[in-house]
Write the structure tokens for this entry.
Amino acid sequence: MDAPVQAEGTNWLGVTLSALMPLTIAATFVTLAQQPDWEPSEV
Amino acid sequence: MVALAPLDFVRALILSLLGDAYKKNNSPQSAIKDFLASVAIMAGVFLVLAVCKAGPRATFETLTHPMFYEVAALPVLVMLLDCVLGILTFRGDRMRQAERLLAVSEDLAEWMMFSTFKMPILLGALIGLVAFGKQDGWDWVQGFPDVDGRFMRQFGLFYLAWYFCIKALCAAYVHTAHFAQTGTGLLQARWVQWIFAIGSKQEEKTTASRRSVEQRSVDVSRPAPKSVLAFQEKVIREAQARRDAATHDGSR
């Protein structure tokens, strides 16, 4: 008799690791956007 | 965005080649060979295109410029190394992995094209409208921030953050149970494809024809529904009954 086919669940580790890098980059851009304007260098 | 787009395009292409390598090869060694050969062919094609478009001298100058190594060659090399290590350390169903990689590469390429070439035109038009309205004294645009250099810088950075958030969603989605059931990427939903196809008739037609081909292939592979089988059975029974009746009449 064939074994019952199991439905594949969500791989939460894969989800976290895949999203980590792009989300870090996105967070960097958000942080940069909230910085005050760049002042011209006095040197 | 313009600086990121070529690198993201190459990334989507490399992921697609990696997906193909997983799909076609049984052993890690043959997958790596196949993958690197595909990348080498792709690089050769790019080189020939660059020489044809820009000329041999300009191509040579670009390839020997230190900036090229920092901006393009090094990231691509890191990407290739990551892919090769991924193949070597992969343990699992290679066909599933191929499906994931191909879906992500398709999503990333489409998202990159949309965010680089279509979305900025729409947003630029909206910002231009707001700036014009503010100058002209329209009431409904007075609540919006002033369109100056600071606003544009912030807006650009938030736009990039949004771009990477969607990339994260696309990359994460292929590990979900929903993807395991459907096998299609996050951005392959019909309504998303409809938005992507706005402004390009050819693309719309291509997407429509692809969908119909997919539909056809699904219809062929899928077993006939119970109602169809019941109908066929009924028709056969009726034909048999008519034949029996005709035979009885003949024998009388």
Q: What stands out?
A: Confidence is low (pLDDT under 50) at residues 1-5 of chain A. Residues 12-34 of chain A form the longest helix (23 residues). Residues 30 and 36 of chain A are 12 Å apart (CA to CA).
